[in-house]
Structures are given as structure tokens and as C-alpha cells.
Amino acid sequence: MSDAPNRDPHPGIRSERPEESGDPWRRLPSMAPATPSAARTGRLGAPTAPRAGAAPVTGRVRPLADPSAAGPVPPGGRTVAPSPLDPGASRDPHGIHRTLREEFPLTYDPLLRAWVLSRYADVATALTDARFTHGHRPGDPPCARAHVDVDIEALRAVTERTAHVLARRIAERPQADLVADFSHWLPAGTVAAAVGVPYRDMMRLVRGRAAGALAGECGGQIAVREKALASFLANVLADPDQVAALREAPAGQVARAWAESLRRDPPVQIAVRRTSAEVPVSGGVVPAGASVALLLGSAGRDPERFREPDRFDPFRDDPGQLTYGSGFCPAVLLAGFEAEYALRALFAAMPRLRLADGFRPVSTGLITRAPRSLIVRPGG
Prior knowledge:
Largest sheet: 5 strands, mixed
Mean pLDDT: 79
Radius of gyration: 21 Å
Shape: globular
Number of helices: 12
Low-confidence stretches: 1-75
Strand order of the largest sheet: 1-2-8-5-3
Number of strands: 12
């Protein structure tokens, strides 16, 4: 595949579609700095004294008993932590994430107004530990209690049907954008079909009450599923060997590839929790009553947890994604069905489907992240 830069066919389109106000993943603190030169942190996360007007720190981080446990600062290493919101992070957050994991596993970020956790072990703990409150993921325990009357096979059938309709609509084109022409429509179209809304009206579900009637608290996940699907298709199509491996793969293998894409390129990059008690983590102790930003994008590429973490490997034997919990939830089911039937429908309608010559998918976004376009040649 060529290393030529991404050729954006829609230069006038904004890089991010509007997010849904009801999406529980987006309940973030203000990202505006309290002052132009708000304080950053030292190596173990203890903040320097903020200037007047800076975001208040709700507690004090106690460093580890042995400060050397965090390791020495490398020659030329940083003494000030980078921010996940620094300029350039939307295009390439991975260098910032690496520095945070290695040198600042616990740090206070004035832009996020939250303590930041970037290592897999800490983020995974924060997503499940009862001491971290005020957060929800589809698939977390509350879902199993909220969704008791869901026809799984009906959801599977409408997902399959919607995916094939969309794939056939673009199969005869010389070129198509799988973000604008497919991924943007499949999640809403699936929900529309499931609740009996006419196809022509399905996009109003992105902010309509019909989605909530199906998925309850997770109804706002349509936009997240759209981004997750776009990243999944980009990961698969970027490597012809992956296309060959997944073209006729059984459902179980597609599910593994889907989970691998969620690990490597989660649609939600930052989730926020609040502590109800002090919690020991890598690099120190998070104080009680503090906002905590969890860097899912960093955790999914932690080399302490995953071998070759930057590589998309659908046959990985050390899987682990943090986008969704492990419990029952229609939003999680639909996301998995959409990934499976998207591949099956696209490969059935376009057996020679490939990326357009010279096109390289580029993901953007700070809070949510995905390719803004995915230009393909349906006929090969």
C-alpha cells in the first residue's frame, strides 16, 4: 500500500460530526484551561502550586513509599507531563500516551481538570472498581438489569438485512467512502429497522427517542458504534492479508478481530470517573472526590499488557478491549453484529473491494476517534 498522504475527497466537511448530547461517555469536565499557564505536574503526579484562578485540586496525591519505583528520568526526559489535549494530539496521540505511561502514570491535567491514568492496569481497574463512580459503559452491570426484553435474533436479522442493503447501494460505484456511505448509516439503520421506523427517516434516530426505546441508557451509542465500525473497516482493509483471512471467517474469528480493533483504536479515547475514596495506582494515590480521566486509547496500546501493541492482529492471543463491559447490553450486541455483517455484506457485494490507490486511513479526534473517510474501490 502506498505511503502517499490521505487524499480527502471532501475538504469542506468538518473532521468531526456533532456528538450526541445523550452519550454517557461524553460527560467530561470543562477542557478550557483555568489560566493560560495552568500548573502541570511533577514526576509522581504531585501538582505544583497553581496560579490564582487555576482549577482547584480536590486532594493531595501521596507518592509511592519508594519514589524510585517509578524509575529514573531518562537522559533528556521530560519533567513536565504532556496533555492528551496538546496541539497535534488529534492526529497522533500515541507519542503523548507513551510518555504518560512511561514517565507520568499519574498526573494532574489542568486542561482536563482531572487526574490522568494511562496504563492498562489502572484504567481497567477504574472502569470496574466501585471506588470510581459516576460513569457507565454499555455492558457494565447496570445494563443487565435494565434490558430484560430484547429479541437477539431479531436484532441479528435486521443488522444483516440493513448491511446488505447499504452494501448493494455502493457496489456499482467506481469509488466510495465507507465512512460517509456505509459506517455512518449502518448503526442508525439497524436501530431504525428494529423499532419499525421507515428507512428514509432512520438518521433522525441519532438524536431521536426511538433509539432510547430500544437501548435505554445506551441509546446514545449510535455515534460511538459508527466510529468503532469505521476504525474496524480501516484496520481490516489496510492489510490485504487481513482481508483474505476474514473474508470467509466464522463469526467467532470476526468477533476476535472486532475486539482487537476496539483495543487498538477505541472509538472513545477518554472516559471520566470520580473517586469516592483514595485509590492507590501506578505512581501514587488518587485522592478521594477527584475527577479522573481514563485514557482508553493509551491503555489499549500498553506494552506491559500487549505484545506489539501498535499492530492490528485479529489472531492475538492476549486480547483485551475496554470500550465495552462484559455484561449483556443491546448496544454491545448491535456493535458486534454490525461489525460481522458489515464485513460479510461488503465482501459479498464487492468481492474485489480494496482501498483506493494512494489512500491511507487517518484517524482524528481527541475524545472520540476514528477515520473521517475511508475511500475504496468497490470493483478492485
